[in-house]
Amino acid sequence: MPSPTIAQRQADHDALQKAIVSDSLFAMGGTAIAATALSFIAFRFSPWYRGTPISAKTAFILAPTIGAFYIRGEHVSTEFRRSKYMAQLDPHEREAILNQRARIDARSSMADRSIHFVNEHRWAILGYTWLVGITGSLLYLYKKKGMTVTQKAVQARMYAQAITLVGILSTAGVASLGDKSENKHVQHNSAALEAALAQDTRVGPSAAAVTAAVVSSKNAQTD
């Protein structure tokens, strides 16, 4: 796989930034419209919501809108880099990696798939964790008397930070489990590479080279 030139890297960077901005703005706009519509519906049918301060109503709209912008941007960045890497491979390497990934997924347990899902969507999970934390905290503190709006906002932020910290520690623990799972696959790939190199006289240099290239590509993707 040839190394990209400076011009290619700049073009990839520009394409990535364009994709992130366009998709993130689209997600932010859609979320803002949906959140505003829900706010109007709640204002129309809920006396409790009509009694909430304007700052809380604004937070109910802005929090998911800003969260959607950052979460969508992170997702687009990850998918862009993955598709770019796959596009740089030749068809045989790409097919071999896809087949190997399918075999790994087929023999993976539910726990392994869950760990993989959490690692793939870590920032989205943390973003929604913060959103749920700040929303739940505002709803909880609104019922408390004897506190000003500023005090409730500060207290809600502290609760949300504590909940998000728990989410960060939880996803970090899941990531460490995922690293152990990936190490098992790396050890398996390394053993397959050594076997291919050791048996190159029996299977032929071309077959050994193809096997070594496929395994090396998988290791590079894992790193």
UniProtKB/TrEMBL annotation:
Annotated signal sequence range = none
Which residues are listed as membrane-spanning?
Answer: 20-42, 123-142
Where in the numbering of this chain does the HIG1 domain appear?
A: 93-186
Query: InterPro entries attached here?
Result: Hypoxia_induced_domain (IPR007667), Rcf2 (IPR040153)
Q: Which BP terms from GO are recorded?
A: mitochondrial respiratory chain complex IV assembly
* Entry keyword Lipid biosynthesis: no
Compartment annotation: Mitochondrion
What GO cellular component is one of the record's annotations? mitochondrion
The name of this protein is Replication factor C, subunit RFC4
| Native species | Coemansia aciculifera
- Tell me the gene name: RCF2
